[in-house]
Amino acid sequence: MPCELQDGCFVVDSDLDPNVEASSSCHLTIMWIIRCAGAVRVWTPAKVNLFLEVLSRRPDGFHDLATLMVTVGLYDTLEIREDSTGEVRLTCDVPTLSTGEDNLIVKAVRLMQRRYAVTAGVEIRLRKRIPMAAGLAGGSSDAAATLAGLDRLWRLGLGNDELGRLGAELGSDVTFFFHGPAAWCTGRGEVVEPLPMRKPLDLVLACPEVGLSTASVFRALTLPSTPIPGDEVRQALEGGEIDRLGKALHNRLEEPATKLAPEVARSRERIARLDPAGVLMSGSGSTVFALARDAADALRLSRSLTSRHDDGVRDRVFVVRSCF
Ligand code: C5P
């Protein structure tokens, strides 16, 4: 089966049944794309923020940020099929997710059709595994996967820089998915500087039942008078120093998110009691993650988190490794 590594995506030309699932070695790359006759299947990861500082409020209503993002091995799957009728149809296994024109996947298709004068339609089936409204950029990742998948399906040959520019038109986090697995992101989040990582990170994600809207968390934010610099967290990541990294974790949005959802603080306290290398909320929440010292430590943490439901906490727990 011919396969090639293209711009960080593992692309496989396949005449296999498209129902074939990804192997467990997904961690090697950021996105996996399998191309079959008339269809592509894309596995696209979640991200966590190891550091997020808000620098200023901008005239366009957005905020200037400095954030360190890492993709992790929790994947949504998109199957994108040519549709001869010219229609764009999206279906999803989560019935509460809107599949209309407001969905970022449909917006990504419309953007590609417009920009490259494509009249063909597509049928997209989305399988969601990344929790929604959870600070894991599932929607942005799906949008990035749509751009990458259509680039292959329609054989446009755009490459990651161009796809990243298109992504920035859809959302602040979309560009990152073309430049991971680890990156320092500034501007709205769309100015992406890839970072080297000494070794993969083992993490445990705890996702509270309540989700948070990014816009409302930013609205509840008090801007810092003195923003925290990110040198320490960058050096710790680059050097693979897990305990140092754990101490340098920071997210300015944690306080406003906690005001809106006390579950975030509760999840944080439960994790902190288990003595991980570090604990932090991701993005605008509501996911809180533990930075484990290694894979065995991640298993220990996840077992403790799932076995003790006496306090009424019903977080969904995922053991993940950062893509590498
Ligand atoms: O870009 P995205 O659609 O993900 O942003 C969602 C909302 O989050 C924006 O409408 C804005 O209210 C807020 N946001 C912000 N500053 C950023 C990114 C997002 O204020 N850098």
What does this structure look like?
With 324 residues, the chain is of the alpha+beta class. It has a single domain (3-321), classed as Ribosomal Protein S5, domain 2, CATH 3.30.230. 28% of the residues lie in helices and 31% in strands. The protein is built from nine helices and 14 strands. The protein has helices at residues 104-115, 138-153, 159-168, 214-219, 231-239, 242-248, 254-260, 262-272, 295-307, and strands at 3-6, 9-13, 31-36, 39-57, 63-83, 88-92, 121-127, 182-187, 191-194, 202-207, 250-251, 278-281, 288-291, 316-321. Strands 1, 2, 3, 4, 5, 6, 7, 8, 9 and 11 form a ten-stranded mixed beta sheet that branches. A four-stranded antiparallel beta sheet has the order 12-13-10-14. β12 and β13 form a beta hairpin. The longest helix has 16 residues, at 138-153. Bound molecules: cytidine-5'-monophosphate (C5P). Residues 62-63, 65, 171-173, 188-189, 214-215, 218 line the site of cytidine-5'-monophosphate.
Please report the first level of CATH classification, the CATH class.
Alpha Beta
Bound molecules: cytidine-5'-monophosphate
Number of strand segments = 14
Rounded radius of gyration (Å): 19 Å
Number of helices: 9
Strand-pairing-aware structural class? alpha+beta
| Count of separate structural domains | 1
Euclidean distance between termini CA atoms: 24 Å
> Average pLDDT across residues?
91
> Portion of residues in helices?
25-40%
- CATH fold description: Ribosomal Protein S5, domain 2
Categorize the overall geometry: globular
Beta fraction of the residues?
25-35%
Helices and strands, in N-to-C order? EEEEEEHEHHEEEHHHEHHEEHE
Give the second-level CATH assignment, the architecture.
Answer: 2-Layer Sandwich
